[in-house]
Amino acid sequence: MAGVAELVPLVEGEESQAFAFEWRGDGYVVRINREARGFEKDAFAARRFAAPGLPVPEVTAIGRLDEGPFYCVSRRAPGVTLQDLAPARLPAIVGPVAGVMDAIAASSLASTKGYGRFDADGIGEHASWHGFVTCIADEARFDWRPVAGLAGRAGMRRIDRHLKEVLALAAHCPETRQLVHGDFGANNVLTDGQAITGVIDWSEALFGDALYDVANIFFWRTWLDCMDQQARFFEAAGGSGETAGHGERLRCYQLRIGLQQVHECAVIGDAQDLAWALNRCDEIATIDWAP
Which residue(s) pair with 207 in the sheet? Predict the structure, then answer.
């Protein structure tokens, strides 16, 4: 692109590379990935859900490099990710983060269909929220054989207990249909230290119960300080907060998130992170989530 002086590498995601650049005085980000699906969902989210209370960077171009990987160009949101914000500055931002989560949940889903992960046309892959939550135990969708090789028999027995608990708890989960980011927090939320300046990476976005995003915060709280401080904010809200009266659902969703993380780690052969995720599921299963 004429006029682009330099590509500055940004922190790489799990599946893509990202570079910042300036063009005609404006900041942009170009990402490279083997697939275009996530980029197309980012573009859909920017078109459909961006609002003053929900800043989603505009996607300006999606294409392919010859017969190789795909690229996506979007406007660059100012600020840093939550996980890169200095710990001393996190308390000032937990309120704005909660406000953005409320904005996500309140987004209009007009002209969309289905539940669970949706495509770039806004069509969810499940007929119900219950179907999405419980499909983690469907061997046609999740092949657990690679996990056995890393977790062993004892690990598989633990996984089986958690799968059974998800199936039992799913009966308490409402057929609510809201926008869910699916991977909210940490490196997918940008801030200037006072406000939220961007919500990025909508590749895992869902239609379903917005409490799933809150559960994601709680699941990862022992991994990242920014997630722990956000979880503490929700806990401190007490009876008026996101956690009040939702103990069974929070347990169900956290176990669902953790089990998917276990499966994904097994697929790529990451035994260390698999062990962490499975241990975290064990912890969650023993927490007394007050009703």
Answer: 116, 179
pTM over 0.90: yes
Q: What's residue 227's pLDDT?
A: 97
> DSSP letter at 122?
S
Q: Out of 183, 201, 209, 213, which one is annotated catalytic?
A: 183
Q: Kindly report the CATH number assigned to the domain that includes residue 38.
A: 3.30.200.150
Provide the domain limits for residue 32: 8-75
* Structural domain includes residue 97: yes
Three-state DSSP class for 64?
strand
Q: How confident is the model at residue 90 (pLDDT cuts 50, 70, 90)?
A: very high
Q: Which two tokens stand for residue 192?
A: 């200037």
Residues 136 and 227 in one domain: yes
In the sheet with 8-9, reading across from the earlier edge strand, the strands are 8-9, 16-23, 26-33, 70-75, 59-64
Reply yes or no on whether the pLDDT at 240 is more than 50: no
Q: Is 84 a catalytic residue?
A: no
Is 3 inside any structural domain?
Answer: no
- pLDDT per residue as tens digits for the range 186-213: 999 999 999 999 999 999 999 999 999 9
pLDDT surpasses 50 at 3: yes
pLDDT band at 103 (very low <50, low <70, confident <90, very high): very high
Residues 6+ apart with CB under 8 A from 89: 193
Number of compact structural domains in the chain: 2
- Collapsing DSSP states into helix, strand and coil, what is residue 39? helix
Flag whether 176 is in a domain.
Answer: yes
CA distance 153 to 168: 23
Best CA proximity match to 132, nearest among 177, 193, 191, 72: 177
